[in-house]
Amino acid sequence: MDARGPKAPGGDALRDAAENLFQELQEHFQALTATLNLRMEEMGNRIEDLQKNVNDLMVQAGIENSNKEQTVRSSLGN
């Protein structure tokens, strides 16, 4: 005898539907996770490109070492 008691009519169908729904949700979640990871990587690349462009502009403007100079001045207490 089954410890869970007698099976309700349609119980297997309901369980199968729940398992299928869970599987679909899991697949959608994995796809969403992959998409988000890709977009975050793309955003990181864009930020790196932006930083490079800002640094290039600073070099052109003659203020290329301002961040390094500020760091050195701060550490020296100036």
Helices and strands, with pairings:
Blueprint (H helix, E strand, L loop, with lengths): L10 H51 L4 H11 L2
* Radius of gyration, in angstroms, nearest whole number: 29 Å
Q: Roughly how much helix do the residues carry, as a percent range? A: over 70%
Q: Show unreliable segments.
A: none
User: What is the straight-line distance between the termini?
Assistant: 84 Å
- Described by the principal axes of the CA atoms, the overall outline is rod-shaped
SS elements, strand count: 0
Largest sheet: none
Strand fraction: under 5%
Element-by-element helix/strand order: HH
Summed over residues and divided by their number, the pLDDT gives a mean of: 84
What is the structural class? mainly alpha
Oligomer: single chain
Number of DSSP helical runs: 2
